Amino acid sequence: MNIPRTSFPRVVIIGGGFAGIALAKKLSKQEVQVVLMDKHNYHTFQPLLYQVSTGGLEPDSIAYPIRKILKDFPNFYFRLAHVKEIDIEKNRVITDIGKLKFDYLVIASGSETNYFGNSEIEKYSMAMKTIPQSLNLRSLILENFEEALLTSDLNERNALMNFVIVGGGPTGVELAGALAEIKKGILPKDYPDLDTRLAQIHIIQSSDCILKGMSEQASKKAEDFLEKLGVNIWKNVRVTGYDGKTVSTNTDLTFETATLVWAAGVKGATIKGLDADTFVTKGNRLLVNEFNQVKGFNHIFAIGDIASMVNHEFPEGLPMMAQPAIQQGKQLGDNLLRLIDEKPMRAFVYKDKGAMATIGRNKAVVDLKNWKFQGVFAWFVWMFVHLFFLIGFRNRMVVFVNWVYNYVRFDREARLIIRPFKKKL
Amino acid sequence: MNIPRTSFPRVVIIGGGFAGIALAKKLSKQEVQVVLMDKHNYHTFQPLLYQVSTGGLEPDSIAYPIRKILKDFPNFYFRLAHVKEIDIEKNRVITDIGKLKFDYLVIASGSETNYFGNSEIEKYSMAMKTIPQSLNLRSLILENFEEALLTSDLNERNALMNFVIVGGGPTGVELAGALAEIKKGILPKDYPDLDTRLAQIHIIQSSDCILKGMSEQASKKAEDFLEKLGVNIWKNVRVTGYDGKTVSTNTDLTFETATLVWAAGVKGATIKGLDADTFVTKGNRLLVNEFNQVKGFNHIFAIGDIASMVNHEFPEGLPMMAQPAIQQGKQLGDNLLRLIDEKPMRAFVYKDKGAMATIGRNKAVVDLKNWKFQGVFAWFVWMFVHLFFLIGFRNRMVVFVNWVYNYVRFDREARLIIRPFKKKL
């Protein structure tokens, strides 16, 4: 790879998500050379992907060109690359566009959908971890409704109008809420010749509550909100299979649907060569110490979803969310500079800023450390926080304009099938 | 196709472009049943496609869901369909989703890229008639720059950074201007390790002037503007071939480029079954009379780009632009109602509202009937007119916000490779 060697030590960061970008920003204008690799040329604001899938936001508004984030940092290099392997013997990263030596390596590769080994579900279900995946889901939903118009077979029509979401975490809950609002506000107008009341939205949750990471209060209230919106929540049910038509479960329940969204879990996106059992832990994450060093290495680090940092409060590692990723990225920036200066690094301390989820118009749940609240105010807080963390002034403006419009007009205009999903199959 | 027969006569419109939408709107709330078919579920605002290709606008901002345009019109049906054939014997439209009888048929299928039979150029060049095509071009441009970073072969690198645009009409001119601004304002910051000054932008025009449909004054000034932006204009040169690397011409000139944009011509998108020599005329357009009736038919009409309406001022048919399409759509709405009421139809009279093209920041040319002007004011007029004709309040707001941002910040933020183009090949 065509990157000049300078007198500065080279830090290679794999992944331009929340963690990687926070780290790179922290290292800007410092005496290090930073090479950031990602398979996309943009950062994705993952918390709003469900709004892309449901036509509420344009995909480009939640993406930001990585080159632009760091354009004023002369010692920064971006490479659009798929990382294939880490050669830990020779301190090299092997990619589809060549090899690159590193002095320090930071794995910030995030997480990917976890199908728990079920290849049938992997094949037929929809995921929502990237912008193309979210656009595929948007196309599929709209294509299904267009197709529902054409059949006179009632079962087929219902299957085309039903949605089954597996997983009651924030992604599943937010998607279900958005779909319920579309069902109520948009479908009857767009498809007057379909009885869209028959469209069903199901959330299937393997445990006994939704929004498991949040307070009982938030979980209960979210359930209330969803039920008011007409979403069916099936608790203590585990999905066991899906052949593209029928969802089977570990109970007698089955569901007929043309759209199964798999939001039931994620796992760390590990990389070949850095996947030894000694440090790959539960959920495919890399075990790191309090300095984010991967167990057994001094110069290889992991941050964000891929890193499993265990403490007494989080015995299974910090939650796979934006906040730990951003905080770890920032702190590692400081620590790398300290390490290079041969100063002692500082242990990472997670500042829990709480969690939140939106269910729909005027409906959200927020857990702060000492204050838990739900409803309209929570919803405004949710919007403000998301606008604040969105990268880029233009993106914030455009998202804001869209939200105001959608709120005032009860609408979601990006219901466009730009790239058909089914036709490709 | 599942569409109930009512006591109203059925008008089938093929195509949801400017012409088809104008007609459908005119027929709303009238005693007709309207079935509009399109292969996309959205209307595309084609004049701004070049801004999607160059990252200035998000694709969804210039698309508008067709169902939404006519949602308050109870007797309107939209079908997402590819029309395969017109059965003029049985008055049926044959599509990929079934057959449909019509009482009145309106062809508003628009135009498609004309390669003049050169299949090699068709295979390797990029077109810009649809949103997916424009997104492909956006991806390709960005992928080429990423690739240029990787090669040490100077010729290859230059080819990756060169752009050849064939055709000096509005599309070619507007694209060239936008690329020139990106070259100047964005590439040096995004790719500090590339000598982007070497990137060349060429317009190749087979005749002796660009913007042929406009005044000599506009054409000259546009040439000035482009030359100031560093665009090379090659007049009286005809492109004869392109193998994906080298552009050959009818002269000694050749160009090395990885990106050839073909904007050299369009032709009517005729449909099988309605393609007899008696009424298919120059440029593959359907010859219509002053009521937009296709020659030889009383109940089959053509409007917009596909219709060739000849008068003494336009012996080769009205120009293939938005204005004739919109005006014909509106007028045909009236005429259809008159025809159904057994009243005489009214002859179409084209009101020439002029033409305009933008070259870049503060640079546009406008030809009105009695006033031709160029420069900053023309540019503001161009923007205002485009915002005005854009369908939908949200789209107007979002486009406006983007334009203000781009103007103030000298930026274009949608430089995202959402769906890679090259990887698919």
Keywords:
homodimer; 425 residues; alpha/beta; FAD/NAD(P)-binding domain; 2 domains; five-stranded parallel beta sheet; four-stranded parallel beta sheet; 32% helix; 23% strand; EC 1.6.5.9 (chains A, B); NDH2-like_C (chains A, B); FAD (chains A, B); FAD/NAD-binding_dom (chains A, B); NAD (chains A, B)
Task: Describe the protein's topology.
Two copies of one chain form a homodimer.
Chain A: E1 10-14, H1 18-27, E2 33-38, E3 42-44, H2 49-53, E4 63-65, H3 66-69, E5 76-80, E6 83-87, E7 92-95, E8 98-101, E9 104-107, E10 111-113, H4 119-124, H5 131-148, H6 154-161, E11 163-166, H7 170-185, H8 187-190, E12 201-205, H9 216-228, E13 232-235, E14 239-242, E15 246-249, E16 254-256, E17 260-262, E18 266-268, E19 280-281, E20 285-288, E21 300-302, E22 307-309, H10 322-340, E23 355-360, E24 363-367, E25 372-374, H11 376-389, H12 393-409
Parallel strand pairs in A: 1-2, 1-9, 2-5, 9-21, 11-12, 11-17, 12-13, 20-22
Antiparallel strand pairs in A: 3-4, 6-7, 7-8, 10-18, 14-15, 15-16, 19-20, 23-24, 24-25
Helix pairs in contact in A: 1-10, 5-6
